[in-house]
Design brief:
Layout lengths: L4 E4 L24 H10 L3 E7 L10 H19 L5 E5 L22 H10 L7 E4 L2 H10 L2 E5 L19 E3 L2 H11 L25 H10 L6 H11 L5 H26 L2 H28 L10 H36 L1
Parallel strand pairs: 1-2, 1-4, 2-3, 4-5, 5-6
């Protein structure tokens, strides 16, 4: 069965890096990256990282360093939001490499689409349902070459690479952050693939929607704002939006509403966990066991020697052993509670 995926560039898309990075201790996730990836994964998208790593070809570090950086990135993503990366592909080759074995204009080096093609074969992807997100034109070119939709992350304060060998392809969307891109994918996920739509790069330049195209108006309005909540959209679909533009808008609203309801439903289900329920019940038993053990321990202390009862010491020892049994059982159950809580945390 064909699957869908979001291809992500690594540097300045997921992690902050304006240079070649081979030191895992310098890995720093961009704000909102982990939550955005987790949200896309919950929507059913495979998350696949595709990055050029010419630092290997330039002799700055080896492939083991690239893998270490990727592993640290994956660890931080999971730690921050439980985000999961399905696969990481990288290209260590460069035509002007100083390391001879990496001196090659390889098919995996973006803007060539080799990494994306390999991922499509490995995961049986339906490329028409896939997205490519990156901060450079080469990312857009690689995505467009295989036929998936593309999103360019553009920060007006940073200089974008200029290379005459990279095809001048307009992305489908241009936004500032990965969180904005995730909102685009939520909104457009079930829509058919369309030709790229030109959007200005200037920070203060906002596209002006056509007054005759109500659907485009809604899309542009949502592009830079948080998605409305379910109740607002439900009211809109129910007919509270009036006027000549209401009919073209409703199909788009219905699509967004359906995806938001699905996401909210998944979040609500995630809040209930059998492991948490068992942990709560066991914790109550732990408290009871510790209380009984403490009671038996105190009872043993109060047993003293009497002339009429020569076996008083036997009763004291029995109460002490009983107290130890209750306390030991309570500690074992407490360890089980901690294990259940850790399992729940790693799962979610």
């Amino acid at each position: 069965m064909a699957q869908r995926a979001v291809f992500l560039d690594r540097d300045n898309t997921i992690i902050a890096n304006d240079d070649h990075l081979g030191d895992p201790s310098k890995v720093k996730l961009l704000p909102g990256a982990a939550a955005s990836i987790a949200s896309l994964r919950r929507l059913g998208y495979r998350i696949i990282v595709v990055s050029n790593q010419s630092g290997v070809a330039r002799g700055l570090f080896d492939e083991a360093a690239v893998e270490s950086v990727n592993e640290e990135m994956i660890r931080q993503l999971k730690e921050q939001a439980g985000a999961h990366i399905d696969a990481s592909y990288y290209c260590p080759y460069h035509p002007d490499a100083v390391v001879p074995e990496y001196k090659l204009d390889h098919e995996w080096r973006k803007p060539k689409p080799g990494m994306l093609k390999a991922a499509c074969e490995d995961f049986s992807l339906d490329i028409a349902q896939c997205w490519m997100i990156g901060d450079q034109p080469r990312d857009v070119a690689a995505g467009a070459a295989v036929g998936c939709r593309t999103i360019l992350l553009s920060d007006p304060e940073k200089q974008m690479e200029s290379n005459e060998n990279i095809p001048a392809i307009t992305p489908n969307f241009i936004v500032r952050t990965l969180a904005d891109a995730a909102r685009i994918i939520v909104r457009e996920g079930n829509s058919p693939n369309r030709d790229p739509t030109p959007i200005p790069l200037a920070a203060n330049e906002v596209p002006t929607p056509s007054p005759d195209d109500a659907t485009k108006t809604l899309s542009n309005a949502l592009a830079d704002k948080p998605l409305p909540d379910v109740e607002t959209l439900a009211a809109a679909v129910a007919g509270k939006i009036t006027g000549p533009a209401s009919e073209p808008i409703k199909p788009v609203l219905e699509d967004i509403l359906q995806q938001l309801r699905s996401t909210h439903r998944n979040n609500d289900m995630a809040e209930f966990s059998l492991s948490l329920l068992l942990a709560t019940m066991l914790q109550a038993v732990v408290v009871l066991a510790l209380a009984v053990g403490a009671w038996d321990g105190l009872s043993a202390i109060h047993i003293v020697a009497t002339a009429r009862d020569p076996y008083w010491w036997n009763y004291r020892i029995l109460d002490q052993l009983t107290a130890l049994e209750w306390l030991g059982g309570g500690l074992i159950l407490q360890v089980m509670v901690v294990a259940l809580l850790l399992w729940h945390r790693n799962k979610h």
